[in-house]
Amino acid sequence: xxxxxxxxxxxxxxxxxxxxxxxxxxKKRSKVPGVMITQFIxxxxxxxxxxDFLSKPIxxxxxxxxxxxxxAHVCGDPKLDVTWGRAKGDMSDTEKFQNKYEEATGEYTLxxxxxxxxxxxxxxxxATNEYGNAICTAALNVIEVGFKKKKAMEQLEDVGSxxxxxxxxxxxxxxxxxxxxxxxxxxxxxxxxxxx
Length: 196
Prior knowledge:
Strands 1, 2, 4, 6, 9 and 10 form a six-stranded mixed beta sheet that branches. This protein has a four-stranded antiparallel beta sheet with strand order 3-5-8-7, with no helix packed on it. Strands 11-14 form a two-stranded antiparallel ribbon. By secondary structure, the protein is α+β, with helices and mostly antiparallel strands. It folds into two domains: about 120 residues, Immunoglobulins (Immunoglobulin-like, Sandwich); about 50 residues, no CATH class. The chain is about 15% helix and about 40% strand. A hairpin with a 2-residue loop joins strand 12 and strand 13. The chain has two helices and 14 strands; from the N terminus they run αββββββββββαββββ.
């Protein structure tokens, strides 16, 4: 009877081995905080390893129009495939999102020239080989300076043209003031409220 059960068990596992679902990944800890490693198989062959980050990209806050560069150093055997992604946006524009590898330093980079507010996002670096993958993230924040300049110019134009922007008025002691060469008088129908 035991032989029959063993034979049935062996036959069953052999028959369904090719059709079984892949095993859930084994989560591993990296030496670098913030890196998530998943190992695809239970035991690694001797001398082989899952991907890991030696250094991961750091969060960046960059002024619009400047160059943003994320850098990563990875290790693992066999050779790794390193790719980049975004949490919310598309990265198919290869002129805007440039993936580079420097063989001399072993450094992978993602360069984003002339950043704008549209590139503000969380970026992900993926290192993958046949035994597993490693993922880390870094945020890009873009400071939009043009918006503030444009808003200030619009407010000055409103004052200079006689249009009063309600966000740009306050009580004033004097009935008029000089802005450049233009002298502005008290607005019609307003008492003690003057453009600033």
